[in-house]
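Reading a protein record of the kind used here takes only a little practice. An example makes this concrete, so a full record is given next.
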Amino acid sequence: MTYRKGHAAYMSKWRTRPNARAWREEYDHRPGVVRRRRQQQARRRARPEAKALQRVLARRWAKANVGKVRASRRAWELANPEVVRAKTRNHHRRHRPELREYERRDPRRLARIKRRKALLRSAVSAPGADLIIPDVVYERSGGACGICHGPLARVDMDIDHIIPLTRGGAHTYDNVQAAHRSCNRSKGNRLPEDVP
């Protein structure tokens, strides 16, 4: 690469200026300089404090976009069932003593949870089932609980099946509504007409 006459003097003049570093980062595009700049940026990103900051920012974004995160995770799980099964097997293998202790302490609750999960899996994979996105359900509700009709914040929202899955309800947009978690828990598997 050739430079014009007096280039060294020109560069030395810039090196003595206070903003020389900013100038180099913005205007100096020689291959060696670009490579060094990229290496420095990579080293800065690899520092523990930079990684910690990135994790904090990622958690903050995920907290503000719960619906997007859940929908994305669910779509990935549906697209990668083998990987999900392998991860579940590994998790159960690693935590077998804790799971056995939990099962010994409250066997009925664990059986109830397993039945509920199996029912939801079969409902989601049934023909005609929809991929339910929580943000869409919340927007349709207009910020009101479908059970008590009170104001509902997005962070307090739970998805309620109007006709419960245990009563033959479908996992479709027509059969879901936004509800407070407490309202959904108190409703249980009752039909809308049975809820006071």
User: Anything to note?
Assistant: The chain has a mean pLDDT of 82. The beta strands are 157-161, 176-180.
